[in-house]
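R.M. (postdoc): so does anyone remember the format we settled on? I'll just put the structure tokens first.
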């Protein structure tokens, strides 16, 4: 049966942990300059109707490193932009390419696409979830500090797609997530209710950050919310991750941000550009974590690499 990755709940905790370990191995192989090309003669289609730097570049580059080819489709230059149904596009692409990444607004769009697709579908961000980013984030923490299991993570800011994926991650990787969000900008209540044993919600950044091992934030103005910019900036006053917030956290805490970041708004420059920040590793790990994901979804039998370095 075809597997998709629309949220972190599509894989079991065992599969997710295996994927993180595999990402670390694939990174080691890549950095050692050893070629590994399990996607020769395969094609990845990327349907993006929102902007992207990291997601697009990491998927295209990763698939190239795997020996395959990728095709980028935006609504402006495909028939999707002229109203061809998603159901039809899914069936057409299933007959031509091998795997699809979609970045769009409504999460229902990726659900519908996956229902009609006979090839794996990856969520490259929707308004509701951004699961690929979490793979890179968990890989980054694992490489830096070891297992995230039992750790405390503080989410400071909007209850957005990234926050939702951190909630799913808290359940799947068994850590405690403390969210500080302004009233009116909390994450989805249904998702919170399902994950109450791993997640606490409040509106005080300092108490959320207390003794945290990771402090994480994201933009206050998500893609598609540009019209709300002024009201959002006002609502998030006091939610900037600054030195005072980081001082509440554990001494070996790391600061995370999926990027793009807006210095002076959700994070101060001395935090994101400071010694506790791991944001560049998070971004670089998108490449490796997604290669592990592609290998998994494509059912590639795992080559055991010899550790020669
Ligand atoms: N973090 C992330 O998904 O970045 P892009 O929007 O640049 O892809
Ligand atoms: N929450 C942000 C993430 C960007 C990668 C957005 O949806 O715009």
């Amino acid at each position: 049966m075809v597997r998709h990755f629309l949220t972190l709940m599509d894989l079991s905790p065992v599969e997710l942990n295996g994927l993180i370990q595999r990402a670390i191995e694939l990174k080691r192989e890549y950095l050692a300059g050893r070629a590994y090309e399990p996607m020769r003669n395969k094609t990845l289609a990327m349907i993006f109707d929102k902007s992207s730097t990291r997601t697009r570049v990491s998927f295209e580059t990763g698939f190239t490193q795997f020996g395959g080819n990728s095709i980028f489709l935006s609504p402006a230059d495909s028939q999707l932009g002229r109203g061809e149904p998603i159901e039809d596009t899914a069936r057409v692409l299933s007959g031509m390419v091998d795997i699809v990444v979609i970045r769009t607004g409504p999460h229902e769009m990726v659900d519908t696409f996956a229902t009609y697709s006979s090839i794996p579908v990856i969520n490259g961000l929707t308004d509701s979830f951004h699961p690929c980013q979490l793979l890179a984030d968990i890989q980054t923490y694992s490489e830096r500090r070891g297992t995230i299991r039992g750790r405390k993570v503080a989410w400071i800011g909007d209850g957005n797609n990234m926050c939702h994926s951190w909630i799913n991650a808290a359940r799947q990787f068994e850590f405690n997530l403390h969210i500080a969000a302004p009233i009116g900008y909390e994450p989805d209540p249904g998702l919170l209710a399902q994950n109450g044993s791993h997640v606490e919600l409040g509106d005080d950044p300092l108490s959320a950050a207390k003794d945290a091992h990771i402090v994480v934030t994201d933009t206050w103005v998500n893609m598609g919310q540009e019209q709300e910019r002024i009201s959002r900036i006002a609502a998030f006053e006091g939610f900037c991750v600054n030195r005072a917030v980081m001082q509440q956290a554990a001494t070996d805490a790391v600061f995370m941000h999926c990027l793009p970041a807006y210095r002076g708004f959700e994070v101060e420059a001395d935090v994101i550009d400071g010694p506790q920040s791991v944001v560049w590793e998070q971004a670089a790990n998108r490449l490796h974590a997604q290669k592990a994901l592609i290998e998994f979804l494509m059912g590639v039998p795992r080559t055991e690499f010899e550790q020669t370095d």
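R.M.: ...and that's the designed sequence above, right after the tokens. Also worth knowing: The two ends are 37 Å apart (CA to CA). The chain has a mean pLDDT of 97.
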